[in-house]
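Narrative of activities, Objective 1.

The group set out to show that a structural description can be obtained from nothing but a protein's sequence at a throughput compatible with the screening campaign. Below is one input-output pair from the validation batch, recorded exactly as produced.
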Amino acid sequence: MTTDDDRPDVDIAADPAIWLRGPSPEASDEDRREWLLGAQHAVSTDFDLENAKGGADYREYLSQVLKAFVSWQTSANVTFLRMRHQGDTPIPVSLELYSRTDLQDIAADPSIDFSTDKPLADQFVDSLLADPDDVPTVGETSCEPVGTTGWQRLVYWVEDPKDGVTGRVRYVRHFAASGVVAVFRFGGLDPALTIEALEDVDELAHGVRVGGES
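Output recorded for this entry:
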């Protein structure tokens, strides 16, 4: 993942009525505690939990959700949590940013075969769209462009005895000017919720600018 030294400026126009942005990966324990207190206050105020029916119970649930989110062990550069209203299912989403240096390091790994004549970034994008994190076990796998933004979206389905059928979603884009490859991921949701969330994550991806390129 990109470091502060070789990462271009990244701006993300996330709708605050939909998305809660997580703390930075470099955040200290104290920073995370402060983030947690601020997030609890902001969401409680936005949802008017002081006056809402079941507000006290929901506040306890909210505390558990936010504690799990702030403790999320992920290599992502940026994290988001979709929370639109009381009763909404929280959806964590991660954004990874791979610089030219990252791609060169990945290509140097002898276990990874980037051997075609295509540019390295294009090969990496192809690999992300062709090689899911988990093996699809049910239904159809789709890979399609998200409008005309340059993002491509991979959606596939996994079935297991405990959770039934759940979706896995990956968005990938190469920002040519900076050489950065950006990757959004979310998953583990039932099919209906997976499909319902796509529109919001599409819009989140649309709002990403890397090095001034949107």
